[in-house]
Amino acid sequence: MPTMTDEHPIPTWLRGLVRLDFVAAVLLTVLAPLVLLIRAFTRHREQLPTLLAYWRSSSLLMVTVYLLAGERRSAFLTGIAARLLIPFTLRVAPATTDRWFLRWRQAVRGYCLLGAVLNMPLLRCLRSHPPATICRAYAEPPREFAALLHPRASQEQLGRVGVWGLWAFLAGAVLVRGIAALRSRGSVL
Fold first, then answer.
1. Range of the domain at 74
2. pTM (2 decimals)?
3. C-alpha triplet 93, 98, 100: angle, nearest 5°
4. Contacts of 2 (CB under 8 A, 6+ apart)
5. Residue 19's Cα: distance from chain center in Å?
6. pLDDT tier at 131, thresholds 50, 70, 90
7. Over residues 22-32, mean pLDDT
8. Is residue 5 part of a domain?
9. How far is the C-alpha of 53 from the C-alpha of 94, rounded, in Å?
10. Rounded Cα distance, 188 and 172, in Å
11. pLDDT tens digit string along 141-165?
12. How far apart are CA 65 and CA 61, in angstroms?
């Protein structure tokens, strides 16, 4: 399997921009919704269905991180798909007056939609040989993050975890849609 390494250095400005996007993604799509989920269990129960649906859809972002850490080019497609799926999941707000939740919802929807549009050029990473500089730049933060979490795992192992995660995500999506279809028909489940 070809790797995303190349003799051309990644420009400092591009590396900085990609890292900023990775940090923003962690803050907006992991830490903030985790705090909101904890608050929802204690004070804002009306937000639980929306937040649980959010976590199902945002799990595709973690799959993307593992795919990138394993140098799987499909990660560029799953990353854009996740950024489109999250705003779709959050399109209907629960009946809540919690300003923190409403602000986060608007911020993450805007961030994800803008990110999806700005990341469209990454689709060329699916086929570029050798990988373009921007493709390699986007793979750096996930590799470093995975090295922190899994110091003994090889890139190949991380890539396999990403592939398994993608299959689990797809199976879960089919299962959720199937259950919803059965419920809409009045079948018991």
1. 12-184
2. 0.87
3. 95
4. 129, 130, 131
5. 15
6. confident
7. 95
8. no
9. 12
10. 19
11. 999 999 999 999 999 999 999 999 9
12. 6
